Amino acid sequence: MTTENTADYRQGQFDRLPESSEYCPKVFFSVDGSHTNYMDITVEEFEAIQAIMTKVLYEYDELPGDIQQKILEKFAAINVDFEWWECTYEDATNVLLKITSFELDRSRNITGEFVEGAEETANKIIAEHGETCETFTTATNYLAERAELVKKYSDGIETDKVYEDYEYEFDQECDEIDAEFLRAILEDYSITLQKESEYLQSEEAIVETINANEYQFTEDGEQE
Question: For the whole model, what pTM was predicted?
Answer without folding.
Answer: 0.73
